[in-house]
Amino acid sequence: MARLFSEREIRAVAVFLPLAGLLVAALVLVRPKADPEAARRAEAAMEERRDSVELHPFDPNTADFEELLGLGLSKYEAVSLLKFRAAGKVFRIPEDVALCYGIGDSLYRRLAPWIRIGRRYAIAPRTYRPGRILPEPLAPSPFRIDTVSARYLRAIGALSKRQAEAFVRWRDLSGIRDMEELRACYVVSDSVAAALEPYVIFPERQPRPIDRPVELNTADSAALRSVTGIGEKTVMRIIRYRERLGGFRSAEQLAEIPGVTESNYEKILKQISCDSCRIRKIDINFADPKTLGRHPYIAPRTLRKLLKVRQLKGGWSTAEELIEDDILTREEAARLAPYLEFGSPGGTTDE
């Protein structure tokens, strides 16, 4: 049988392997060891801020490294902002600074009053064409969203020609009556919507007659959407919150839902009613943890205490006992009591 390797090849491998082992060992020995203290000093130097900070109006699109340090940014934060710009990002509105990696919320809140976005960068830039000098965008002024032209939206630099034309088609087809519907248009980004919000005038939606209010606990999405002040997203929030609650005991609970702002809250109240007899109650002595934890008025900490005491005590007869057992505060009990029933082991319930 033929041999796979000659004696010469075997001798070469026998010499090579020890040499390779010695080389690897030498590399391991001569490699510099990590210096935790040096790394800590380098990190501290990046986080160090200047002692003298002078806040003044600045444009984050043009501020240089030294100016950023003078505004109170650390070296790390200043470098992060400059890298953000180097990647082709542009700050269109002051809120864009908060999106920059490395700029924390507290720093942004301190800088926000001093941020000034130049006309060249605000809202949306004009497309550059070689050899052509483009006019500066017009300063926006209040306009009606139901009659504004595509030409005007282009003139203030809000949208490109195609975007403005698509926006007008969308508006004429669907109608736009509030900021929620404006943001729903696919050509309007969040930053553009935020920049336009101070100038947009919406048409008044015809309110529902007072004698035919919408009943909160039985209304479907179409009925809720017909209420002036309630947008599509808010409709879904109301329905989801109603399901978690077990129904509304009073119309004022709408104020607990994101999207129902102070500006439209009073309008909504005049167009709705609430039948508290339709709320769904929870038997606190027998309901499973998942059902109890889903209710928005039962916090996780309260749920843990409630389950622990229920296991030892067996249950309660009134909401007052929950206060005495230090499970609910008096305010929490008053808010939650309409949603509770107290079943006894025999199967009867006491309201």
TrEMBL record:
The chain crosses the membrane at residues 12-30. This is Competence protein ComEA. It comes from the Bacteria. GO terms for biological process: protein secretion by the type II secretion system. Keywords: Membrane, Transmembrane, Transmembrane helix. InterPro entries: Endo/Exo/Phosphatase_dom_1, RuvA_2-like. It holds the Pfam family HHH_3. One of its GO terms (cellular component) is type II protein secretion system complex.
